[in-house]
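Listing S7. Sequence submitted for prediction.
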Amino acid sequence: MQRESQALAVRLSALGAPVTTHFYAGTHSPPYWAREFHRSLPMLLEALRGT
């Protein structure tokens, strides 16, 4: 999946789209999702508040 994601990012950049990517090591196991959810929750809440 990472290879496909990287290829998409390269293609979007080539088309002039602004792209920011973060590729994380690991699997999509429940501990992974719990960790990433807790890390991203503050950013998601801020975006929803419109601040």
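Caption to Listing S7: primary sequence and predicted structure tokens for the chain studied. DSSP finds two helices and no strands in the chain. The chain has a mean pLDDT of 87.
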